[in-house]
Amino acid sequence: ILRETDLKWKLCALLLAASLQITWQDSTASLEEKLFKSLFGTNAVYQTHRNGNGPLLVNITVVMSNVLDVVCMDILKYTITSVLVLNQSWYNERLAWNEEEFPFSTITVPWNSVWTPSYTVQEAFDVTWRVGSPNVVLHSDGKTEFQLALRIDSNCNFDLFYYPLDSSQCFLSFFSLDSKVSQLEFSTSISNEILNLKREYLITNVNITSQRNMAQPYFVVMITLKNTGIRVLLSSVLPSFAVEIADLCGFFVCLQDRLSYRITLLLAYLVFYSSFIGSLPESSSCNPLLSYYYTGLLILLFLSTTETILVQKLVMDNANLCLNYGFKAKKKGTSTASTSTALEHDKDLKTKGNTLDRLFCFIFLGLVLLFHLLLAGLWYLWKCAPKKPPGEIYLDGI
């Protein structure tokens, strides 16, 4: 009997607790519904964002989490993929409530239930929301918090003159087209949380600014990218320099084998030249200085091969050379004196050919040094700034 009584009391206690829990949940849901109606009235969407007579101040913290890719789409289109989060907050007195009447410090509502800033990214051609339906957090003092995670594919005007050691700035310009500067103002800050690991372009700096020199409120995120260039240096510049050294060493090869040696170098470099030039990025205003290096090296190889042909023709085949004035090959059966004279002529031509070969060697070495000095001067002294698109004129003062 005692056991049955205890079980009955326990069952009654459980039923009472469940009933109280359901009642509390219903009461909480009812209070939240009343609070929602008191804030928004009959309108499902609250569109007014003015705060008194002055502009509404929106605090924005941009968290840069990653820059995924730097891709060349075509000759005039270089794109980057940026992943960032916009942490936004502002105060609206019309969305405040009394915690004594509604005992909630914060509530969460769908983003389309309240006014939130809308943005247009000028350089973007594709913007993806990483969260399809983000929520908005409302505080009892009127503070509104909204977190927006974005993936932005945008165009960038790269400075490719110093490729593969180039450094460029890419911009993400956020405009609020549905507001004016008299209605909305941005207070911006940025947090760089990018990890530079195993990528060709490194992010050296991330900055943000906002100004009031436009009709609509806006802020600009500036991303500075630097090319490491290791892959290009190892795959193309180093082999080209090795071919240049091999061509200079060709002057130490005996004259009988030098022509085939240099023709082999020239043909091999022609094959690599087509792939080198095809792999270089192109620009509408400033082509990479590296392309001029490849072309100049091809011209030097052609000159050294031509010099070898002329000298070899002069030294080894004097019968049909236009430089061999008055000397003709002697037929068989001539006198010993004529044979001796022909041998002296051949010896004289070989001496002149060797002298000419040494002269060409020094001239070619001077051309190589002059070529590299010219490239070094262009690299350090010539500033080839790419022309800005018309839409970036407003960024000159940033």
UniProtKB/TrEMBL annotation:
Membrane-topology annotation of the record: Multi-pass membrane protein
Pfam families associated with the record: Neur_chan_LBD
Residue ranges of domain Neurotransmitter-gated ion-channel ligand-binding in the record: 33-193
InterPro entries in the cross-refs: Neur_chan_lig-bd, Neur_chan_lig-bd_sf, Neur_channel, Neuro-gated_channel_TM_sf, Neuro_actylchol_rec, Neurotransmitter_ion_chnl_CS
Keyword field: Membrane, Signal, Transmembrane, Transmembrane helix
GO terms of molecular function: extracellular ligand-gated monoatomic ion channel activity; transmembrane signaling receptor activity
Keyword Transmembrane helix applies: yes
Gene3D superfamilies to which the protein is assigned, alphabetical: Neurotransmitter-gated ion-channel ligand-binding domain (2.70.170.10), Neurotransmitter-gated ion-channel transmembrane domain (1.20.58.390)
Designated name of the protein: Zinc-activated ligand-gated ion channel
Encoding gene per record: ZACN
